[in-house]
Amino acid sequence: MELSKRALAARDAIEPVTSFFLSLRARDGRPGVVDLTFGDPHEMPLPAFVDALRANLEPRAEDWFAYKSSQAPAQEAVAAGLRDELGLPFEPDDIAMTQGAFGAISVAFRLVADVGDEVVIPQPGWFYAPMLGAADLVAVRAPLDPDTFDLDVDAVARAITPRTRIVVVNSPANPTGRVYTRDRLAELAEALESASVRGGRRIWLLSDEPYRRIRFDGVDFTSPAACYPWTLIDYSYGKVLLAPGQRLGYLALSPLIPRTERAELRAAMLPLQMGMGWGFPDALMQYAAPALETVSIDVAELERRRDRMVGALGEAGYALTVPEGAFYLWGAAPGGDATAFVAALAERGVFVLPGTVFNSPGYFRISLTATTPMLERALPVLRALGPG
Prior knowledge:
Number of strands: 13
Oligomer: single chain
CATH superfamily of the largest domain: Type I PLP-dependent aspartate aminotransferase-like (Major domain)
Strand content: 5-15%
CATH class of the largest domain: Alpha Beta
Largest sheet: 7 strands, mixed
Structural class: alpha/beta
Mean pLDDT: 95
CATH architecture of the largest domain: 3-Layer(aba) Sandwich
Shape: globular
């Protein structure tokens, strides 16, 4: 059987992830295992989240569970939340409700890019490359600053070619936890505007913001939409609710996009989502969306876990990037080989994510969504295998 080129491209791009999954599955079921790999919950769901679902589960009309596109109450709640949070005049029609951030990113790639176009993505970064392969688009990696993992505007500018259509920015960033400053984003906006004029073709910015509300130490957040009009924002509620299995997110058009172009984008989103296989959240999740706008995990507790792990691992000799947001620790693997390091940890019952998943084989990632007792059980193993 001959697979499509897009299926092969997606398979090859995501191979490090699937290989790791298979190795992890082979060790499933061992008692006492400490799983620090993904941003999954390890405690019961937030009561307010469950209450919001329960309040909307009982049907109130015959069409309660009929086909649903983006629902007006959800769009209105999102637009109001964005106005308050980002200080920009979002309108409900700027919002397309999606199945999490993955769904929003998929819509964005197809909304403004054509087959063969290039999309500049950060390195290290998350699942963009396989999604681009599945959309017949070309991933071009732009490294973050190798010392600080800050956004490197010069690296982005060097990655731009006449085929570039989208640049992706992720802040707070996964896996590094960096939050990019307004000044740095303004530099990026200037570079994208210059490149767009020079190439005679608009370059769009996709701001990947699922961790926007998870920040530490009072760090400010600026969305690129405030600096560069030609910005699309994707968001997921799965992070702030710590419920990634219930898919709810959105794609938002910057209200600074000129109104004529914004009207064209608004009109295109509904048929595109339908054509992609009804890419809307389930009815129940959309009904719950207004109530979920104010629900959040305990960010202060995440910060305490961050401080505990950064302090303990720092004393053990690990080189870590102290996260300003999101819920991960990003560190250099002892000996420079993340695959060997992760395998050694797994043999001792501690699972962390290797940097190979992010095309960064010298690093590893720890999820802080594990409970405090889980992290404490992991520390002696991490100390024993540390660089000290």
